[in-house]
Amino acid sequence: MVEPDRMHEARIIDYPASHHNGSGTLSFADGHSEFRKWIDSRTTPPVRYNNQLQLNKNCRDNPDMFWLAERTSSRIPGY
Predict the structure, then answer these.
(1) What is the pTM of this model?
(2) Rounded to an integer, what distance in angstroms lies between the CA atom of residue 12 and that of residue 68?
(3) Which among 8, 44, 56, 67 is placed 20 to 30 Å from 17, CA to CA?
């Protein structure tokens, strides 16, 4: 995940499912979960069944990526 102060470098590698009315839920090791209605169209591109979905795509300033970055692990400085 990209650090919050480097959101201009955010890239989306694997897309969340887009068939849940544009939303998803993350579950965490401590047992809690968080629901999110995706708000940026780049987060959930339309489903196409032709194996042509572009992965590792730039998502500069995508608020959904910021939300995910706040809730996922990050690098330890120096590693």
Answers:
(1) 0.73
(2) 11
(3) 8
